[in-house]
Design brief:
By secondary structure, this protein is α+β, with helices and mostly antiparallel strands. The chain contains 2 helices and 2 strands; from the N terminus they run ββαα. The chain has helices at residues 49-53, 69-80, and strands spanning 24-26, 31-33. It has a two-stranded antiparallel sheet. It comes from Microvirgula aerodenitrificans.
């Protein structure tokens, strides 16, 4: 699954620079994650870096974008151009 940012976000600015896929951006009120770019850091790290640095724990799995580990890896390959 891709990740999502909930309305508990305090706009602390720590998640955006941690995303290796540039999937996180500032929305109208809070940060948001583009599910087309989010791989949960598969291919880059063992754990999603945004979740690791979030001080309010507001980045859960997005139930609207279910994906397997293999699907996340394939998305990583396409985004990064690595095979």
């Amino acid at each position: 699954m891709a990740l999502m940012i909930t309305d508990e976000c305090i706009n602390c600015d720590v998640c955006e620079p941690e995303c290796p896929n540039n999937a996180i951006s500032q929305g109208e009120e809070i940060y948001q994650i583009d599910p087309n770019l989010c791989t949960q850091c598969v291919g880059h790290y063992d754990e999603p870096q945004c979740q690791q640095v979030c001080p309010v724990d507001c980045i859960p799995l997005d139930p609207g974008h279910e994906e397997t580990h293999d699907q996340l890896y394939q998305k990583f390959v396409i985004i990064s151009g690595k095979a």
